[in-house]
Design a protein that fits this description.
InterPro entries: AA_adenyl_dom, AMP-bd_C_sf, AMP-dep_synth/lig_dom, ANL_N_sf. By secondary structure, this protein is of the alpha/beta class. The protein has 13 helices and 23 strands. The longest helix is centred in the first third of the chain and has 17 residues.
Length: 481
């Protein structure tokens, strides 16, 4: 069974995300583009600083299509860094300098990166990898107009996000500008412009892409938290109230914490009065918390989203309605994207029957960096004459098409899990346990809700797995990264 979004030959005249942002900056030069705490920068100043930094990146040896590691976690420098990389014609690869040394070395080796953008706090860890370090300067004098390279096209890579890998090696999912141009154009068509968007996701997570860059394509404001060392409900609520946030994104686990705070009175609804749209994604949605929030905040819409880093992030949307009850669907694909329910042989399943969700259209990414076999298994030649594109992405997610045409989620075909929004391959955990304990011949990782067991970072595996630890209630915030 096939469900597809509206076919628009071209939603935007732009080739790339950079072109969309440049156009918005020309139209809204004096508007505030980015805010972080008490610091703000206008569209004009943002583009001037990004161009100046791109010139310096090029002088440091960054060439078109190079991968540039970005270890910034927040600040007005973060979007400037991403813009500078795009202007230089390079590819954005977000990292965390606090990752275990082995993981950092693996990332450097996989990407061939020669330069990392940091903020000075973790320069020692980055320098230990042999990388050249670069710090974004907001106050650079304006020099030449650009970095002297051709602007990116829709076919050029925009980002590479590292995710957990079942082979024990993190995999870097790549995506083109065209897929994100389509996603951003759809969001503008659906939600309009003039938003104040809160970047509620760390830049290591793919949803940070839309939270930070989509507002900049239409003259809206992107608001970043001052601190990113831990997620704190009080800080999020304070930022929403202080900056008049109208739109943001939550994973269901953290959204439930917000709803609980609204229910018990620790957060007054008036502090969230500016919210108009909340996107939910990254995990299976919790109907009870969603409907409670809608009752307490009737002016705010809840949009369930579904998608993958490998396929332009979110590409299925659904605005939650009263009639959804306890069975909230994933929704329908956005413009120029398609989902087909297939069996193991890529044969189409009948309506109402569960099968694997296969994604097609402009959203399909460029595979995994330096992993041709894994890419070939997940990104298969398109066997369907009625679907555009050369490749179809096999998501590994089980789903079906309901009688009303909505997609419904039904689990996974493999051992990938989500723990508080963190995507984890249990196979990677198992391999790390065996590597750390030579006397162990085999190991299995399972998910045990609220087990109270000793966290993985207290065992030798912490040097391999700390990058994917997800803190639970009562865990020392300084311990879990």
């Amino acid at each position: 069974m096939l469900v597809n979004g509206i076919d628009h030959a071209r939603l935007s005249g732009a080739e790339s995300v950079l072109e969309m942002i440049c156009a918005a900056a020309r139209t809204h030069a004096d508007r505030i583009a980015v805010t972080c705490g008490t610091r703000s920068i206008s569209y004009a100043d943002m583009m001037a600083a990004a161009n100046a930094n791109a010139v310096r990146l090029a002088a440091c040896g960054v060439a078109p299509r190079d991968m540039v590691l970005c270890a910034l976690s927040t600040g007005v420098e973060l979007p400037l860094a991403w813009l500078s990389v795009m202007i230089a014609g390079a590819v954005i690869v977000p990292i965390d300098a606090r990752w275990p040394a082995m993981r950092l070395q693996a990332v450097v080796a996989a990407t061939g990166a020669r330069l990392a953008i940091g903020d000075g706090a973790d320069n020692a860890a980055l320098a230990a990898t042999g990388l050249q370090l670069y710090g974004i300067d907001v106050e650079l004098p304006v020099g030449q107009a650009d970095a002297g390279v051709a602007p990116p096209t829709g076919a050029d890579l925009l980002y590479g996000f590292f995710t957990s890998g079942s082979t024990g090696t993190p995999k870097c999912a790549l995506n083109h500008h065209a897929g994100l141009v389509n996603r951003f154009s759809y969001m503008t068509r659906r939600f309009g412009q003039g938003h104040v968007v809160y970047q509620n996701s760390a830049p290591l997570f793919d949803s940070s892409i839309w939270q930070m860059l989509w507002p900049l394509t239409g003259g809206s404001v992107s608001v970043l938290p001052e601190r990113r060392d831990h997620w704190d409900i009080d800080t999020v609520v304070a930022d929403i109230s202080r900056h008049g946030i109208s739109m943001t994104d939550f994973v269901p686990t953290l959204f439930k914490l917000l709803v609980r705070a609204l229910e018990n009175g620790s957060v007054a609804p008036v502090r969230l009065a500016s919210l108009r749209n909340v996107l939910i994604g990254g995990e299976e949605i919790d109907p009870a918390s969603v409907h409670t929030f809608r009752r307490l905040m009737p002016r705010c819409r809840i949009i369930n989203t579904y998608g993958h880093t490998e396929a332009s992030i979110g590409m299925v949307f659904h605005e939650v309605r009263d009639e959804d009850g306890e069975h909230i669907p994933l929704g329908r694909p956005i413009d120029n994207t398609y989902v087909r329910i297939v069996d193991a042989d890529m044969k189409t399943m009948p309506e109402g029957e569960f099968g694997e969700m296969a994604v097609a259209g402009i959203c399909v990414g460029a595979g995994y960096l330096n992993m041709p076999e894994l890419s070939a298994r997940a990104f298969v030649p398109n066997p369907f004459r009625d679907l555009p594109g050369e490749l179809v992405y096999r998501t590994g997610d089980i789903g079906r098409v309901r009688a009303d045409g909505m997609l419904e989620y039904g689990g996974r075909t493999d051992d990938q899990v989500k723990v508080r929004g963190v995507r984890i391959e249990l196979g990677e955990v198992s391999l790390a346990m065996k590597a750390c304990f030579p006397q162990v011949q085999d190991a299995m990782a399972v998910v045990v809700p609220n087990s109270g067991a000793t966290p993985a970072w207290r065992w030798p595996t912490r040097h391999r797995l700390r990058s994917t630890c997800a803190s639970c209630g009562g865990t020392c915030r300084g311990t879990c990264r």
